[in-house]
């Protein structure tokens, strides 16, 4: 997909707009699959929370992916997109027992991450196979907000609680068919990941009827040219060898599972927005765009970096700009970044906008969420329409007769 293709999409569908390149998604899926081709049984379960548009889910299903879900709504989306129930794993955190039971009734695989619910579910449904999410107490990830395997994390059952866990399993006679961990996102240190994996292998020895071991994901992708990333090929070689050895020791060919989200869709996404104003202050040149953290919150929320390209002037002289949005709070996408010279009306492109971008968008400031477009086989296909004012008020109940304006009260009082 070229700069001119992106500019044409902005012209056709307006801005701001999200664009996803299906070819990149497919190549990332194949890259991860090939990295683990020494494993007999591999299952990639796409993390729906990264980008949950139903067309993207259908694309993943066509590739043979499973689906990792964290809410009953994502489960329902997956079923609607054509995933078989047994290809969906439900890995919620802090949800009610009723929601887990609802997912189990739909036939999807269940992953439980706390002792309380494990005991309740096992007591009521001992025949339903359950995967257990372990917290290995390993700090991994590029930001504290996305590191989820450390000792203070709310996620998973502590490895120090294994005796308690085993007592629950023994008393309820429940069927444990999988062991799972997820240490965090933006993992670079393969050694740390492999160390956490050893903890998972050791834990797995306590369960005699496992079908799979799920190692989570969190592989780092590059955010700019020359940026560092997780070496999935090296990880694949080392973890595959260790996994195969474990299967021989265990006496059964297990499935090695991952739940990639960002790795599959981040680089495939582009967010396009128009420059409304170029504003020179005493110290800074601001490029204000027709969007804000209501559409792309990652820079403000995570301090995430998104490379910004001026599609309208890609060969212009580079100057320093702070790119900001129209939300009436601090709303900064980038501070003092070198970007090809910007003029009002230019279209800026934010790269790595495929994961946790549209899915975290909101109607803050009563703004409409943007459309989504899939670039597939050299064609632009609209996969979500831009919201309208009707969408904004669709579920609101206008109690217009509940309150009487002050001036009407005064008029009524005069008449009396």
**Backbone structural class:** alpha/beta
Shape: globular
Strand count, sense and barrel status of the largest sheet are:
9 strands, mixed
- Give Rg in angstroms: 24 Å
Number of domains: 2
> How many strands appear in the DSSP assignment?
18
CATH architecture of the largest domain: Alpha-Beta Barrel
Strand-residue proportion: 15-25%
> CATH H-level name of the largest domain... which superfamily?
Alanine racemase
Distance between the termini: 71 Å
The helix fraction, in percent, is 25-40%
CATH topology category name of the largest domain: TIM Barrel
Explain what this protein looks like in three dimensions.
This protein has 416 residues and is α/β, with parallel strands linked by helices. The protein folds into 2 domains: 17-265, Alpha-Beta Barrel (TIM Barrel), CATH 3.20.20.10; 269-393, Lyase, Ornithine Decarboxylase, Chain A, domain 1. Helix content is 31%, strand content 23%. It contains 13 helices and 18 strands. The protein has helices at residues 3-13, 22-35, 54-62, 72-80, 97-105, 115-124, 162-172, 190-204, 232-250, 262-265, 298-302, 389-393, 406-415; strands at residues 17-21, 42-47, 66-69, 88-90, 109-112, 130-135, 157-158, 176-180, 212-214, 255-258, 269-280, 285-289, 308-310, 318-324, 332-340, 347-351, 372-376, 379-384. The strands form 2 sheets. Strands 1, 11, 12, 13, 14, 15, 16, 17 and 18 form a 9-stranded mixed β-sheet that branches. Helix 2 packs across helix 9 (232-250), helix 6 packs parallel to helix 7 (162-172) and helix 8 (190-204) packs parallel to helix 9. The radius of gyration is 24 Å and the shape is globular. Mean pLDDT is 93; it is low at 141-150.
């Amino acid at each position: 997909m070229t700069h001119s293709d992106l500019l044409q999409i902005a012209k056709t569908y307006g801005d701001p707009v999200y664009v996803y390149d299906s070819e990149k998604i497919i190549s990332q899926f194949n890259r991860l699959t090939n990295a683990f081709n020494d494993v007999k049984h591999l299952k990639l379960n796409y993390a729906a929370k990264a980008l949950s548009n139903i067309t993207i889910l259908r694309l993943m299903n066509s590739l043979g992916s499973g689906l990792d879900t964290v809410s009953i709504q994502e489960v329902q989306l997956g079923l609607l997109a054509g995933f078989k129930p047994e290809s969906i794993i439900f890995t919620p955190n802090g949800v009610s027992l009723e929601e887990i039971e609802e997912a189990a009734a739909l036939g999807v695989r269940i992953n439980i991450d706390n002792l309380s619910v494990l005991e309740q579910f096992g007591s009521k449904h001992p025949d339903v196979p359950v995967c257990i999410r372990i917290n290995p107490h390993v700090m991994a990830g590029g930001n504290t907000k996305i590191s989820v395997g450390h000792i203070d994390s709310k996620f998973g059952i502590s490895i120090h609680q294994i005796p308690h866990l085993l007592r629950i399993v023994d008393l309820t006679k429940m069927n444990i068919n999988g062991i799972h961990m997820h240490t965090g996102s933006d993992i670079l240190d393969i050694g740390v990941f492999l160390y956490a994996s050893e903890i998972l292998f050791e834990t797995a020895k306590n369960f005699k009827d496992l079908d799979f071991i799920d190692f989570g994901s969190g592989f780092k992708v590059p955010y700019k040219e020359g940026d560092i990333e997780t070496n999935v090929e090296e990880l694949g070689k080392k973890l595959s060898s260790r996994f195969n050895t474990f299967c021989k020791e265990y006496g059964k060919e297990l499935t090695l599972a991952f739940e990639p989200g960002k790795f599959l869709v981040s680089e495939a996404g582009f967010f396009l927005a128009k420059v409304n104003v170029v504003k020179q202050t005493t110290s800074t040149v601001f490029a204000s765009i027709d969007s804000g953290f209501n559409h792309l919150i990652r820079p403000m929320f995570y301090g995430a970096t998104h490379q910004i390209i001026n599609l309208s002037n890609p060969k212009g002289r580079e100057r320093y700009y702070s790119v900001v949005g129209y939300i009436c709070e601090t709303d900064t996408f980038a501070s003092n970044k070198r970007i090809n010279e910007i003029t009002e009306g230019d279209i800026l492109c934010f790269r790595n906008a495929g994961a946790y971008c549209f899915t975290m968008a909101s109607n803050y400031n009563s703004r409409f969420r943007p459309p989504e477009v899939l670039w597939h086989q050299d064609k632009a296909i609209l996969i979500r329409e831009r919201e309208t004012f009707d969408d904004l008020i669709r579920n609101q109940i206008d109690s217009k007769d509940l309150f009487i304006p002050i001036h009407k009260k005064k008029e009524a009082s005069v008449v009396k």
